[in-house]
């Protein structure tokens, strides 16, 4: 039985690379460094930061990750924070949602499922991402929004999936988590006892069953069908 669906945000609903391009432009205006260089370094730093976060390197998640990124980019932490603030009102932020995001959320919500957003954070707090979801027209679909800096838990820990299920009023086994990370989303949810859908927009197959409670999809448009099959 499936009663609730939680969604990862960056890479699943919102385009992180596109947002990093916005931040790079703002940071370039502040620091005078080339946009292309800052964007490239940001993507490289993000890949390294994902591993560092999994290893528990960021105890004060926003501050520590900001210091990590700043060192990799060769900029001041305060300049990085200022760039994030400047980016929030950029017109492009309202266009960060993937084309399949709103339709999938609308279908899932109208089908009667409880719906949550579940996001880890890096060098900006969850409230900033929550506002960006609002700007993209997606925030209204969620019954619950959970961010790691606010609850002190992060994917792929079992505890954060238990927290979401408890807040939604459902059993963990009736929760389906949707995300783009094999470690944080797919493995995290399945090991915790939930079901999982891995989103990989580059795979040439519409959907693929990975196991008893897990699927791979190339688009969120296939999610309603997968949910029916999981149910």
Summarize the structure.
The chain contains 10 helices and 7 strands. With 231 residues, the chain is of the alpha/beta class.
Strand neighbour order, sheet with most strands: 3-2-1-4-5-7-6
Task: Choose one word for the global shape.
Answer: globular
Low-confidence stretches: none
CATH homologous superfamily heading of the largest domain: HAD superfamily/HAD-like
Strand content: 5-15%
Derived from helix and strand composition plus strand pairing, the structural class reads: alpha/beta
The number of E-state strands comes to: 7
Number of helices: 10
Q: How far do the termini sit from each other?
A: 5 Å
CATH architect. name of the largest domain: 3-Layer(aba) Sandwich
Identify the notable features of this structure and list them briefly:
231 residues, alpha/beta, Rossmann fold, DNA polymerase, domain 1, seven-stranded mixed sheet
Q: Could you please describe the fold and organization of this structure?
A:
- By secondary structure, the chain is of the alpha/beta class.
- It has 2 domains: 4-14 and 94-230, Rossmann fold (3-Layer(aba) Sandwich); 16-93, Orthogonal Bundle (DNA polymerase, domain 1).
- 50% of the residues lie in helices and 14% in strands.
- The protein is built from 10 helices and 7 strands.
- It has helices at 16-31, 35-54, 61-73, 77-88, 101-110, 126-135, 148-151, 158-168, 182-192, 223-230, and strands at 4-7, 114-119, 144-147, 175-179, 195-199, 207-211, 214-217.
- A 7-stranded mixed sheet has the order 3-2-1-4-5-7-6, sandwiched between helices.
- Helix 9 links the parallel strand 4 (175-179) and strand 5.
- The termini are close together.
- The mean pLDDT is 96.
